[in-house]
Structure formats: structure tokens, C-alpha cells
Amino acid sequence: MRKEEIKAWAGYPRPNYARVTSEYGDCSATTPACRESSDLLVKWGATPIFDEYWRFASLRQAVFVQRLSGEPPPWTSDPILQTHRFTNPYRFTDRVSQYLIKEVLTTGSPEPVEVIFRCLLFKIFNRISTWTFFLSHFGTPISGFSVHDYASALDDARRSGEPIYSAAYIMPSPAMGGRTKHENHLLLLASLIKSRELHGLLESTSLKDLYERLLRVPSFGSFLAFQYAIDLSYSHIFPFTEAGFVVPGPGAKDGIRKCFAAAHEREFSNIIMWTCATQDEHFRRLGIRFERLAGRPLQPIDCQNLYCELGKYAREAHPGVVGALGRTRIKQRFSTDRAAALPPLTIPPKWQAGPQWTDTDLAYATS
Q1: Which of 101, 111, 185, 187 has CB 3.0 to 4.6 Å from 176, enough for a Cys bridge?
Q2: What phi and psi, each to the nearest 5 degrees, are found at residue 249?
Q3: pLDDT for the residue 22
Q4: Each residue's pLDDT tens digit, 95-136
Q5: Helices and strands (DSSP H and E) totals, the chain
Q6: pLDDT per residue over 163-176, tens digit each?
Q7: Contact, 345 vs 293, CB < 8 A?
Q8: DSSP calls for 324-357
């Protein structure tokens, strides 16, 4: 955001914490938590787009719930949501994550190292058709993994015009001495097996610990390491869940900058954790209904993703506000004519064991 735009937002008033009664209960300006949030919003230079964050979350979730219920379109009257593609508010509900949970993490050997191997092999390419290609040619046991065989088969697939990587993430090629990007990724996996680094991941005691171990893997970087940590946290082999730690990606930083003009980038992770911990407070404050999935609140990774999607939404809704990325249009279009029916939702089995986060998990700094 340019300096003159930050100055223009400087007069944004404190949110109205007058008592609001709704299905969520009451929020009073005399409540310590509400006063604390009001102070933080002023400190971070909250803009009107922050209130839009919660409206966007509610509207986008309503679209997903209606589609999941099999209701016919249109699922929203919002013209931007009608014509542009946005991810679901809950990260685990996206198509690739659902496939990972249903077909990759729980299908095959339950041995922990095998689960990690399958997860990383799937996510490095991040394409369902590539995974089914592997299954049809090789199966998935780690003992049968051959860089030469896998690379040769992918060479054939590419020659036939089949894409092997998803366009969702930019996948940098590790410097492993291979002839192609996919061979380098396969060599990387082989090195992780040989060095027993996959076994080392099992020693992780928290989501942050797992992330830091993955961050040491060549070419992963902070964004991919965090995404892979979240993916692995869906499995039964780690005792922790998605909560407790978050790393903002480039898109989330763009959305946060549009919401908080005075916040420093070093505060962005804390802002996401605070957003997650205070979500009910803001839905109450604005009188917005948000439909949770099976009673599960938004997690830090979901709030991170929502900042990313809001950054895109604001390009159309607030074209004069330039964020950290400087982009002005939304690339992906959406049409209900091409919207496939959604299959039943699968929740990671370990989530059914009890509460998903505590106040300690969602700790954030207030000064």
C-alpha cells in the first residue's frame, strides 16, 4: 500500500463495540476482550476492509455449504463471488486436501514413515492425476521407490502432453543434479529416505517444530514447508493439529496489508493468530452469521487463507487499494455451468477425538 493510501486510512475509527445482540450472544464495549481488540485495531491501523474480511468469510462459506447440500445455483447474490474463483474458508475442504485425507493419508500402510512418504510424494506434484498415475504404475510402498523408474514414467507422461504439476503452487526445483525438475524432486525424496530425515520428522513435538524441520529441506522454503506441515498434521501420526502456529504466505500478506495499514510485517503471524482467537467477537460485533462445519471454528491456517482470498476479492471490491503484491485483477474466473457437484465431506479421523484448540494454542501477543 502506498504512503498516501496509508495516510488516507489513518482516520479509520475504532469499531463500534456498542452492545450487539445476535445468535452469537452479546458483545459489550465494557468487556475487557472487546476493549483489547479495539486497541489492537487502532495500533495496527485497521481499515474498513478488515470488516469486509468477516463478511467475505460468511458469504464464501454460505456458497460452500449450499453446494455441499446439493442446492442449485445461484449460491450468492454477490457479483464478485458469482464470477471469480475463491478457495473455501476451511482449508481442509478444498478438493486436493480432501483427496489427500481420503485417498493418500489413510490408504496404504499405516506405518508413519510410509504415511510421510506418500504425503510428500503427493504434495510435491500436488496433482491428483499424477498420484493416480503413480498408483497405476508402481503402487506406493516406500521400499519399491525408484527414482529412475518414476522419472522415466513421468518423462513419457510429459511427452504425451500430460501436465504433472499443479499450477496452485510454484514448485522450485531442488539442485539435486537431475536432468529435469521432476527428476530433481524424486532425487530429493530419495535423499530424505536415505538420510532418514523422514524418520526425523516423527520426532516433531508441535506444528512449529514440524515446520522448522521441513524448512531445512532444500527448495521447500517457508511457504511450502508450512503447507506440508499442515498436510501432515491431518494424519494420525502426529499428536497435534493445525492450531498453534501459522506462517503467512505472500497472498495473506497482501490481504493483511489491505486490512491493517500500520502493521509491520513481523506482526502478521500474530495478527492471524489474533484473528482466529477473536473470530466470534467480530462476527458478534458485525451481526454476521457464520456457519461452522460440524461446530469447528476457523483455524489459523483458515484465517491465513481467508486473508489471501480477501486480498484477491478487494482487487474488484476496492480497486483503489493496492496491497503488498500490487496486483489489480483476479485471474481465475468462475462459472456455475462448470461447477461440479461436491462429494460428501471427509474430516480427518483424529479430529473427532476432542476439542481442536485451546486458549493456549491460540496465544497471541497484545503489546
Answers
A1: 187
A2: -85, 175
A3: 32
A4: 999 999 999 999 889 999 999 999 999 999 999 999 999 999
A5: 16, 2
A6: 999 988 888 999 99
A7: yes
A8: SS---S---B--GGG-PPPPPP---GGGGGS-S-
